[in-house]
Structure formats: C-alpha cells, structure tokens
Design goal:
This protein is mainly α. The protein is built from nine helices and no strands.
Length: 173
C-alpha cells in the first residue's frame, strides 16, 4: 500500500489563524481591561454587564498580596474576560467617556461665563440671568465684584473660584 501524502497546507487557511504573538497581545489587552475594571470603584463597576464569576475574581484580587499570586490571578481574570460580552463592556466604556466629555465641555462653558462676568461685570450677569433665571443675581454680583477687586489688587483668585463653584451649583453640574 503506497504511503499517503499529507494534504498540502492551504495558504489562505494558514493566514486566517492569528500568530502566537498576536494571541499574546490580545491576552495582554484583556488582562489590562481586567486591571482597569479592578481599579474602578464598585459603584462604577456596577454599570458593567459582568458575570458572577468575573465579579468574584475582581473581589478576590484585593485579598492577594504576593506579586506572583497577583500575576497568576490577573491571567485568570484575563481568561474569564474572554467569556464576557466585550461589545457590551466597550459600550459602557464609551458611554462613560462620552459623559466625561460632556462634563468637560460644561465646565469649559462655566469657565467662559465666569471669565466673561469678571471682565464685563453686570452686563454679563444680566445675560447669564436671561439664560438661567433661577440663578441668584445678588450673590453673582457680589462674587463678581469681589473677583474683580482681587484681580485689580493682584491677590489670589479666591472669589473667582467661589464664583465658579456658585455657577456650578446653580447649574447642578
């Protein structure tokens, strides 16, 4: 009986499989994702759709003190994360990032209002009051006067910070 020759490798099939290095990079990325989840506060972590096994592994991490034990545990967390819904987890990360961006934009708008009020005085306060009628005009005017006085005297911007805090509280940011 003649020897059977092995089937030749299909080049396309070989290219479809990821390389060993690529697999390692993916596993390190999953471990990094696990470390990010571990570093979060429990209230933030509650937003993520994680399995019970994953949550137990995350809680277990805080009890591990040895460096080598932690390294092995992080590999285990990386293994568990492979079973999670990564698109849903990424969606939550995207939502958190979008909220952060919106909050940053709101703070920049408040900074512009504060600077404008200190520069222009009562005219800017009136414009702010037109946009936000629930604001306390008297408190705003007092803080603006104090901030202008501090700026003229070259003092630290204590009243300017108070004005910003008052604006932030008024808009509930």
């Amino acid at each position: 009986m003649p020897k059977q020759r092995p089937e030749p490798f299909d080049i396309d099939e070989q290219e479809e499989r990821p390389s060993k290095s690529q697999l390692k990079r993916e596993m390190h990325a999953l471990q990094a994702l696990g470390e990010t989840l571990i570093a979060m506060k429990p209230a933030e972590r509650a937003r993520f759709p994680l399995s019970d096994d994953m949550l137990r592994a995350i809680e277990e991490t805080s009890r591990i003190r040895s460096h080598e034990g932690r390294r092995r545990h992080m590999q285990y967390v990386g293994k568990l994360i492979r079973k999670e819904d990564l698109t849903a987890i990424q969606g939550v990360f995207d939502a958190i990032e979008q909220e952060k961006t919106q909050r940053d934009h709101a703070f920049h708008r408040l900074e512009k209002w504060r600077d404008r009020m200190v520069d222009e005085g009562d005219d800017a306060v009136d414009l702010f009051m037109a946009d936000y009628p629930n604001a306390d005009r008297q408190a705003l005017r007092q803080l603006v006067r104090n901030a202008r006085k501090e700026r003229e005297q070259g003092k630290p911007p204590t009243s300017s910070r108070k004005l910003f805090k008052h604006l932030r509280d008024t808009l509930a940011l």
